[in-house]
Write a structure and sequence with these properties.
The chain has about 475 residues and is mainly β. The chain has two helices and 40 strands.
Amino acid sequence: MLLGLTVNRGAVLAVAVLVVVAVSAFALLGSSPGNVSTSSRSSSITSSSTSTPRTSTTATSTSRSGCASSSFPLVDWTTYHGNNSRTGLTPGSVTCAKADWTSQKLDGTAYAEPLVYSGLVFVATENDSVYALNETNGAVLWRTHIATPVDGSSLPCGNISPSGITGTPVIDPGTKTIYAVAYESPATLHYLVAISITDGRIIFSQPADPPGATVKVQQERGALSLGNGMVYIPYGGLDGDCGQYHGWVVGIKADGSGAMFTYQVPTGREGGIWATSGGAIDSMGDLFVATGNGASSSSFDYGNAVVKLSPNLQQLDYFAPSNWLQLNNGDTDLGSVGPTLLGNNEIFQIGKEGVGYLLNTTKLGGIGGQVYSGDVCSSVFGGTAATWAYVFVPCSDGLVALSYSPNSFQVLWRTPSFPSGPPIVTGNVVWAIDTSSGMLHGYDAKSGTSLFSLSTGQVTRFTTPATGDGRVFVAAGSKIFAFQIS
């Protein structure tokens, strides 16, 4: 592997500290569902990645962009959609949003969601590089180039070239480590790479492909998850579904020690775990993943299913729609979206068919065992966002809000038609990218009223914003766009 490090030590992080902002809008929408902690971040936590408000502090920024000076809860965003439940929810009350800064051109396209920790924005590129940017001005603090990525033309199918780091990394705040999976040439292998967030130093790099996998047709598109002292890595296939690929989950200890744990979807082929949100982890440490279509045209093969796995990746339970065979035959993946944990032992799941499911985490129910299901929209990709009261669904024909109770849901509002990327929520505003135009839209979370429209340029298909410390961040092509919110 080729290892390199570039550090810009002249850039300086500036974050002023004031009193904590009231979060009345957050309370109005409901507390964060799932297993999200709201306590102060502890330096001893090494087993999970959950983005939390830093109590008794706020981010304050002067307005270069037209908004009044903002005081916002200091919130880190250390994993996809901010927490292991994948709810994409942070506190705050937003009345203004304006363009703040645009980064320099990075060395490759960013498919992964940016992460935010302790005043820094972390970005991974398809050139197998990880960047740390100053959150206040976008200056590059360090860049670590891990290896040479794989030339997409050398693969039997696929739509990403070069293919380097695609899945969203994860940060362990306790050890100040960011983990990413790099696809590397000339070996054409995946490696789990642990990098110090302090200076970009590579701590370790080790093989991350499951034994027996046909690596040239396996893609690591889904976000990494951190829990139980383990990094969990999901795998699916390439665009085009070529070759003998399977859905896999790999578990590697966060310190790099010990044996690899693996789970393979028990289908003859396919069953990819490819949704960009990756796996969700509940408060007991169990992992929930969703699979794409399997190869079977007769007996159930765990394609189009939600699967519950133990911390060491033993299968505990599963759910599949009654029409799983029809979904298999039509390439209509339930697993085009990852599960979202809503709290109160509930999961929301939806996929390409556009039918939403409420599931019970303690008893997924097997085939047809949902608590409730209903039509939502045409098709869905990526990940959803949620509060205690609402679920926000990124449909190919617009963003849809559902109000839900323990045993049902109904459509609350829907936007005009556009291909929506996965949404996030900052208190009273839900944000989603129009992946055709690159516009970042902000809607009132309760009414669906359009509040903000901000341009980012060309984005990838499953682009989702990130947030932290009074800003919203979007990876658009090879640049990061930051928007001040107050």
